[in-house]
């Protein structure tokens, strides 16, 4: 007959205690140790044994026993860390939590986000202390990033389609990521640049003169990274059809051509559709709306921007176009394919986690 352990003392919670424990569990930036202890107590209050709670939360039974007993002895205060040897801390857990809560859930009266100075003034703590608290919790009020979620009703199907091309390309076919880098400006700085010197970076004037624009059409082979390109002053359906004709002449006739491109109107113009109908080896795969990240040619455009355009100085469009052609030629001398690693399922799961985070913000 199995031996039974000693009867566990009954653990019951008041409404206020339960509310506080659930708040510590739910608040995303609470200290993780405190959140785990709160889960242990809530599970114990449901009548579960120490071993059942341990299995459910992935901790050891002694850990559950420790925090059950600490709560029974000192209630909520028993879940806080005990004083440690050495100089006692002058910042309480409540102060730390209040700083994080204020940072995430409020703004200063005269600003859009908190600075270390403004939060130090509000909390009564030093600026260096505020900085350490923010660093510990990964909070960066001074930073922001942009995003745009796709509203495409066929989003899932398009993600599976395009990622499938990347990870399992069809046989006897080439997969090309296609787009235009439009409105590339020929910018001439108002003054000559000062060259880099030891201890001094290159210096350029902040103002410039615009000398016209051009557009770089690019089709990147996802298998080997090589690029088919054209340059046109405009980027209408006429120019896009000319680029498709160039692709048709460049790719060996015995291969099918799968084109990944966005939903820009010129890509779906009647002129383009008529031409595609006469060239059945072309297969178009349109990315979901607001999802340029899935088109690998955007990574190529980032490279040309970083390596050529950010510091460019062109007195006319012809000089800019010459440099663009030279850059593509140099790229094709040593092409670098971008290796796609995430499956469609992983992408969708990542987006689902992000949606869950933003839908629960502030709760």
Topology, please?
Layout: H1 15-26, H2 32-45, H3 50-57, H4 61-74, H5 93-105, H6 116-123, H7 127-137, H8 155-167, E1 173-189, E2 208-221, E3 227-232, H9 237-250, E4 256-261, H10 270-277, E5 282-286, H11 297-309, H12 317-333, H13 344-359
Parallel strand pairs: 1-4, 4-5
Antiparallel strand pairs: 1-2, 2-3
Helix pairs in contact: 1-2, 2-3, 2-4, 3-4, 6-7, 8-13
What this model shows, in words?
The chain is elongated. Helix content is 44%, strand content 13%. The model has no long low-confidence stretch (mean pLDDT 84). With 363 residues, the protein is α/β, with parallel strands linked by helices. The protein has a five-stranded mixed beta sheet with strand order 3-2-1-4-5, sandwiched between helices. The protein has three domains: 15-79; 105-137, no CATH class; 159-194 and 203-346, 2-Layer Sandwich (Nucleotidyltransferase, domain 5), CATH 3.30.420.
């Amino acid at each position: 007959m199995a031996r039974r352990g000693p009867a566990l003392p009954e653990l019951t919670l008041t409404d206020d205690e339960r509310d506080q424990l659930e708040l510590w569990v739910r608040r995303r930036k609470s200290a993780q140790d405190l959140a785990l202890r709160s889960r242990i107590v809530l599970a114990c209050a449901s009548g579960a044994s120490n071993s059942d709670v341990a299995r459910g939360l992935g901790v050891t039974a002694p850990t559950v026993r420790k925090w059950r007993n600490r709560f029974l002895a000192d209630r909520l205060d028993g879940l806080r860390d005990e004083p440690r040897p050495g100089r006692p801390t002058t910042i309480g857990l409540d102060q730390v939590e209040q700083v994080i809560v204020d940072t995430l859930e409020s703004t200063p009266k005269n600003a859009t986000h908190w600075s270390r100075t403004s939060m130090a003034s509000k909390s009564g703590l030093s600026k260096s202390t505020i900085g350490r608290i923010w660093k510990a919790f990964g909070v960066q009020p001074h930073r922001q990033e942009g995003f745009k979620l796709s509203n495409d009703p066929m989003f899932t199907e398009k993600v599976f389609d395009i990622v499938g091309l990347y990870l399992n390309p069809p046989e006897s076919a080439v997969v090309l990521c296609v787009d235009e880098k439009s409105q590339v400006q020929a910018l001439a700085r108002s003054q000559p640049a000062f060259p880099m010197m030891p201890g001094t970076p290159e210096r350029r004037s902040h103002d410039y003169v615009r000398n016209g624009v051009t557009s770089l059409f690019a089709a990147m082979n996802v298998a080997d990274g090589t690029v088919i390109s054209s340059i046109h002053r405009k980027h209408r359906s006429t120019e896009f059809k000319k680029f498709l004709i160039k692709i048709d002449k460049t790719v060996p006739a015995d291969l099918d051509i799968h084109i990944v491109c966005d939903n820009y109107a010129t890509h779906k113009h009647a002129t383009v559709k008529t031409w595609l109908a006469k060239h059945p080896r072309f297969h178009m795969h349109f990315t979901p709306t607001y999802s340029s990240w899935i088109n690998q040619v955007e990574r190529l455009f980032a490279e040309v921007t970083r390596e050529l355009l950010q510091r460019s100085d062109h007195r006319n469009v012809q000089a800019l176009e010459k440099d663009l052609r030279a850059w593509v030629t140099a790229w094709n001398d040593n092409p670098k394919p971008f290796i796609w690693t995430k499956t469609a399922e992983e992408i969708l799961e990542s987006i689902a986690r992000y949606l869950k985070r933003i839908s629960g913000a502030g709760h």
